[in-house]
Amino acid sequence: LDRLTTPHRLRIHKMASGPTLVVILALVAVHVWAGGPHSTPQTRKVVISNIHPRYSTTGEIVNAHDGTIRWFDGFFWLHAASYGAGGCADPPHQGCEGGGAGGCGFRPDHNVSIWRSPDLSNASWHYVGNAVECTSAPGCRILYRPHLVYNPTTKLYVLFYNYVSDAGPSRNGVATAPSPAGPFTIARAVMQVARPSLPSNHEASVGDFDVLVDDDGTAYMVYSYGPMSIEQLTPDYLDSAGVNATFVPGPVANRRSELPEDFCEAPALWKRNATYYLTTGHCCCFCYQGSGMITYTAPHPLGPWRKQAGPADLGCVLGANTSTPAELHTLPLTAVPSPGQGCGYKGAVAKSVSQAQQNFVFPVVTATGLVHVWTGDRWMQSPDGQKAHEPQFWGALRFDSEGNLQPLEWVPELVLDLVLPQPPPMGVSS
Question: What burial class does residue 167 get, using C-beta atoms within 10 Å of its C-beta: 0-12 exposed, 13-18 middle, 19+ buried?
Answer without folding.
Answer: exposed
